[in-house]
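Much of what follows relies on a compact textual record of a protein's fold. With that in mind, consider the following protein and its fold in token form.
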Amino acid sequence: MAPVFAHGALRLYLLALLESGPKHGYELMRALSERFGGTYSPSAGTIYPRLGKLEQEGLVATRAEGRRTNYSITPAGLQELDSRRNELAGVEEDISASVRRLADTLRQDIRANMRGLRADLAATAEAARSTVRAAGRAAGAAAGTAAEATSGSGGAPRYSPEGDRRLREAEMLVQSFRDDIRIELRRHAGRRPVTPVTLETVKTVLDQARISIRNSLAD
């Protein structure tokens, strides 16, 4: 993949981010990730050496706050930034081009990955339906007798106690799945932004699961 930033561009962009006020390293990484719409997330090994170089040059000052180090732009840093406004505008244009390029690459990867994922989910769902149908045929005679006893002659069908239990169990499984995934998503978001790939994967998997479950209920 082509470099996201040209030589020296990230250094200049960090000064631009600090112009709005002091920030610690994680805030700068998050701001960069958000600027790229989640298509690019810089690592600590990319950001901190450049911040250290800016500090050595007197363009950035640091202040410790607990376990974090806050970075702020110095008067010399502002002068450097002001003298390179035209260059900064070019960096912004390059970032926009990089976002489009990275988004196109992600879309291609997502389409390829989702085709394989859909096929795997469809095969798994079909195997599950086949297993359920086989079990249903084995218990067909007993189930038929129970259905006649609970429906009565001409009356509205009623759930059997066993059916009620299975319904509650199915509902609890759905609720547990929902709660577990929400927890995992929030943990992930606490560490780094949710990317388009993650969002598209969640949407595709849930859509396929919904289709598979509906097909099973329609059998």
